[in-house]
């Protein structure tokens, strides 16, 4: 093939060069270049772009793109800025990322099940007190979103002996998971969940999904894990729920603004665990291998990998 694959990114130089090396190693027969190093002829011929937080003007400067491969699993920023009639977007679906996210969900589920936040508080206060042990089988973990990440997390948590419920847009059948869809299903799932895990993409429908009313519908004494995107949960409503004692703890990996502002109440709230967006980092090598497979399949068949539905937002 004569076309060069464009890498359009707005990430650190170090990250960009690590992605570029991994992509070149995974696709030795392809020409891959960063957008800024491509000449005009290469820009006109480019059929495929691999993007990470791209400047939309750079994407628009490649007039013959057949499709765009995102380096991220979450594409809300890309979709929001996408011009109508723009090329199809394919997002990253990497089994290794699903495994990492499932591991994170299980790790922080154990953190809550074994009352680690309470023991940390007790240690700081010099208090020797044994909390009642709760078996995994006595707790329901309710997962919002049963896609590539949510379904993997549900399977992993079920395997560890927890009861698992899951909610998605379309109705689903998953072994060992009590599944729900639509608004009534969401209310019912929140009512029975001891730990609610957020793994829905950020879209027009899921922005503010967990507002005061829905947080109040969660079982009293439950905890929340948000590994999706900050704006899915209304922060002030969450803080009110924690302050009132309705929710006992929140593990937050994602925020309305990242990095989290130094003056945010979340940093110092005793019932909040703040994580710096680390639940499932993209793995350079496995991501490059998945992208190489997508591109090889496209070169061979002309068929695009399964894409993002722009109107749906994910
Ligand atoms: P995915 O495969 O597209 O799955 C999304 C799931 O959410 C699907 O089950 C979908 O339902 C459901 N959903 C979407 N909109 C909904 C709505 N309005 N109501 C109910 N359910 C809805 O996405 P994924 O790969 O699992 O990733 C999920 C999100 O995780 C990403 O968008 C990203 O924001 C986040 N993420 C975070 C990190 C991190 O490190 N913190 C890393 C990677 C990704 P259907 O099954 O019916 O389509």
Give a verbal description of the structure.
InterPro entries: D-isomer_DH_NAD-bd, NAD(P)-bd_dom_sf. This is Glyoxylate/hydroxypyruvate reductase A. GO terms for molecular function: NAD binding; oxidoreductase activity. Pfam families: 2-Hacid_dh_C (PF02826). Residues 111-279 form the D-isomer specific 2-hydroxyacid dehydrogenase NAD-binding domain. The chain has 314 residues and is an alpha/beta fold. It has 2 domains: 5-94 and 282-312, Rossmann fold (3-Layer(aba) Sandwich), CATH 3.40.50; 96-274, NAD(P)-binding Rossmann-like Domain (Rossmann fold, 3-Layer(aba) Sandwich), CATH 3.40.50. It is 38% helix and 17% strand. It is built from 12 helices and 12 strands. It has helices at 13-26, 40-45, 56-60, 76-81, 95-113, 116-124, 148-159, 182-192, 212-217, 235-244, 265-268, 284-301, and strands spanning 4-9, 31-34, 48-52, 67-70, 89-90, 140-144, 163-168, 177-181, 195-198, 223-226, 249-252, 272-274. The chain has a 7-stranded parallel sheet with strand order 8-7-6-9-10-11-12. The chain has a 5-stranded parallel sheet with strand order 2-1-3-4-5. Helix 7 links the parallel strand 6 and strand 7. The longest helix has 19 residues, at 95-113. NADP nicotinamide-adenine-dinucleotide phosphate binds at residues 73-74, 145-150, 167-170, 199-203, 205-206, 227-229, 253-254, 277, 279-280, 314.
